Amino acid sequence: MRYFRIYADERHIQPRILNRETLVRPHIQEQGLIYEELEHRNYMKVELEREIAFLDIVNSPIFMVTKEFANLIRVYCPAVKFKYMVLFDEVNRRAVSYQIPALPEIDCLHGDSELSRDGNTITRGILCGEKTGNAPIFRLKGAKGRYIMANLAFVESAYRREVRGMGIEEFVVQ
Fold it and tell me: What is the C-alpha separation between 63 and 103, in angstroms, rounded?
């Protein structure tokens, strides 16, 4: 069994959120709490250069994906619920719809994992294989930051669908 952290690749420019505090109180950082704070349909103003395309994954302020990526999540996890977000670039007069999945949280980070000095970043990730329950995609519970984990089959399916802007990092499974 192989698991990967999936995220918006830093080599690609993400939209700059302009009105985050109107949707989510600034002190709330945990993804589950942000999800609960959001309405079913949401709108945020962003800035993004005209030449740069919106990607299939956005990490901040919350993990959100395009309709195509959301449909892939539905194939693997039909019970996952979604909220909706429209990112509107007022300057360039364009908007893109995203979906925010309420992914299950699984506490499966192994005690031998290595964390950064401040404890916010996993520098060497190890998962407890028996605790994952073979879930195809989930949010890593107990880890600060945005850790979305997916199994190999899910990641391969995403690449076959040519998901734009997705980075992966493999975690060891014990």
Answer: 10
